[in-house]
């Protein structure tokens, strides 16, 4: 699988699990754990966001920022 396909696969997995967590109102710590498990915490650090301290509204923006960062 190519590097680009792997990134797409990770983003798709993040997207589906992310919104599943939001719909069941899991804690922000669960979102942070999910991000770390998928292996993109370096992106969070590079764009200067700590997922533990964001609101649910900001989590949606975080996902968009990650996608924009990955596809630069």
UniProtKB/TrEMBL annotation:
<protein>
    <submittedName>
        <fullName>Uncharacterized protein</fullName>
    </submittedName>
</protein>
């Amino acid at each position: 699988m190519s590097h680009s396909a792997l990134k797409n696969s990770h983003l798709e997995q993040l997207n589906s699990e992310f919104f599943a967590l939001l719909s069941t109102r899991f804690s922000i710590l669960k979102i942070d754990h999910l991000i770390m498990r998928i292996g993109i915490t370096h992106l969070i650090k590079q764009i200067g966001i700590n997922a533990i301290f964001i609101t649910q509204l900001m989590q949606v923006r975080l996902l968009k920022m990650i996608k924009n960062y990955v596809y630069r």
